[in-house]
Amino acid sequence: MKTEPETDAKAPSDDDTVLFHVEGRTGVLTLNRPRALNALTHPMVLRISEALDAWADDPAVGQVLIRGAGERGLCAGGDIRAIHDDAKAGNTASAGFWRDEYRLNARIARYPKPYVALMDGIVMGGGVGVSSHGSVRVVTERSRVAMPETGIGFVPDVGGTWLLGRAPGRLGTHLALTGTAVGAADALLCGLADHFVPAARLPELTAALATAPADEVLPRYAAAPEPGVLAGGRSWIDHCYAAGTVEEIVERLLGQGDPAAKEAAETILAKSPTALKATLAAVRRSAALGTLEEALAQEYRVSCNALTSPDLVEGIRAQVVDKDRNPRWSPPTLAGVTAADVERFFAPLGEDRELRLP
């Protein structure tokens, strides 16, 4: 998820919104839209793919590093204002963007060389897609990792349902429904990252990666993060989110008597009721699938079908366009969302429109 596109007259063009070069034996990718929190555009996805293709068979490149320009984050996700405009106009440009983005996510997960992601600062939505599928994932004390799609009437994508569906216990369901951003320790606990490195040491780490493989370098920089919050809530999280429906989950949360559980319930109730129910179904169905590629194919169906959901346009309007933070969901309550409404998100797109991955 993303806030706003750049408006500065000197903003980078599509040709330099992703910078790539080889430093020693490391191919370095830099997402270069710092004023927009490095939000992904379709040309950026294609440029990342182009670099990965070129480096995959290049004997001079032993590993890949991806990072974000600026100090605020690796990537805040896709440019949701563009998705809003596309959905509102009834167009299909977003489907083309997602097709290439999800192919990139699968490519990253299967990349033949170490893929090191510096998940410093904000890492949300599509930012998770270009980092958490990598083989070496580094978080810092500044990391804020999230899949916040239910807040804009959307459903976690970019392989997010695959990742969250495999988090310990019901932690992934909690993060999917609430859209909560987690810090370093909780990202490690949930399997969204592998190593903690203090932000001040990232320049040293990057320089060291130019001369040695990641598995040799990381032990010199990795440390233990400050404790997170999710581990202490496992008892109520695992119990409450095991319920069969979103309504039952909320009921259990409110009945816990724990302030954190009550806060989670209130957070959920502010999200799109339709997106919440579709998200719960998507995460649970993804957990039963055998491969990331199958999960991405399912997410592609869900995302494309979401383009015709009124809550997607309304959610982005409220959060990004008008910024009144007062979305008018349709239907406005969980009780108003039927099983048929949820199933519509998973409806086949047609043989010529489905996402095909190797």
Features:
3-stranded parallel β-sheet, 6-stranded mixed β-sheet, 358 residues, disordered N terminus, single chain, 43% helix, 11% strand, 2-enoyl-CoA Hydratase, Chain A, domain 1, 16 helices, alpha/beta
Short characterization:
By secondary structure, this protein is α/β, with parallel strands linked by helices. The chain is 43% helix and 11% strand. Helix 2 crosses helix 15 (310-321), helix 3 runs antiparallel to helix 14 and helix 6 (171-178) runs antiparallel to helix 13.
Question: Can you walk me through this structure?
Answer:
This protein is an alpha/beta fold. The chain has a single domain, classed as 2-enoyl-CoA Hydratase, Chain A, domain 1. 43% of the residues lie in helices and 11% in strands. It has 16 helices and 9 strands. Strand 2, helix 1 and strand 3 form a beta-alpha-beta unit. The longest helix has 17 residues. It is globular and about 60 Å long. The two termini are 27 Å apart.
